[in-house]
Write a structure and sequence with these properties.
Two copies of one chain form a homodimer.
Chain A (H helix, E strand, L loop, with lengths): L3 H15 L8 H8 L3 H13 L3 E4 L5 E4 L8 H9 L26 H19 L2 H5 L2
Antiparallel strand pairs in A: 1-2
Helix pairs in contact in A: 1-3, 1-4, 2-3
Chain A binds a DNA duplex through helix 3.
Chain lengths: 137, 137
DNA sequence: ATAAACCCTATCATTTTTATAGACTTTATA
DNA sequence: TATAAAGTCTATAAAAATGATAGGGTTTAT
């Protein structure tokens, strides 16, 4: 399951996607619209900004806005950013690799082999579904 | 990522699959082979038993054994049992459905729609990969 | 009778996630 | 140029989930 962080991020991105005609959107507006804590959402939007997905404008009249096309924001990117690895095991993660303590030899581990396949097929899904898919339904 | 519980379960199932010639296998042997806590593993094997995946024999000379064919033990079953939902959001879970608090209307929520698609495609993968795939590599 | 081995429930420790707090900086505008 | 609005940043606290341990109970081969 996705963490609330990622879930909130998706709601925020959706909201921003639906308000692309406006220059900026307030954290407060998104938070209120979904009943999310303003301060919690603040941290999330900041992370999305640092990742190059959102832009922001400070000061009075400021706010957040999408800096990328919805079609260029795949679910995989959002999930990795806020939840970490997409792989089911650390020993098959592309971005967060770590060996598994209970595995004696990765090279001959059947679990490892199968999980690599699962990872690749899962990535195909999550890289192809984008914010655009969420917006167009 | 999978919890350690699920990861250990997969290792235990793999071990049991490799020792199908023996009548029973001791918890202790599996635990030692992978450096897992005996007691923790005990709980896991018990759950696998209650789920109808393993059988056991009590008393001296007892132990655990696979009660199903490896090809009939899909990853989806093991993951659901020990980790819970495969869906990324509670509002699209087939087995553990719950509404999402921050979603005003599921029927018109684009996130919901896309996550249903992700769930279905993910299930296709996890229902088709079985213990057999792990054993044969 | 005894020892081996699984069965069951409760509890504790650790880690991760979720949420909050508050001071700081930037900027529009009256 | 003072003020209020709005994002930035770091720290910490609260809650939940996960991982691990403990110990007594029951079954069974010998």
């Amino acid at each position: 399951m996705l963490s609330k962080k990622t879930k909130y991020a998706l709601h925020a991105l959706t909201y921003l996607g639906k308000h692309r005609d406006e220059k900026t959107v307030l954290i407060q507006d998104i938070a209120e619209d979904h009943g999310i804590s303003h301060k919690f959402l603040e941290n999330i939007l900041l992370e999305l900004k640092k990742a190059g997905i959102l832009g922001s404008k400070k000061g009075k009249g400021g706010g957040y806005y999408l800096i990328k096309e919805p079609k260029d924001i795949p679910l995989s990117k959002v999930i990795r950013l806020l939840d970490g690895p997409i792989a089911l095991l650390p020993c098959v993660s592309l971005n967060y690799y770590e060996p598994c303590a209970e595995c004696k030899d990765e090279a001959t581990c059947g679990i490892n082999k199968v999980m690599i396949q699962v990872r690749d097929e899962t990535l195909k899904i999550l890289e192809n579904k984008t914010l655009e898919d969420i917006l167009k339904t």
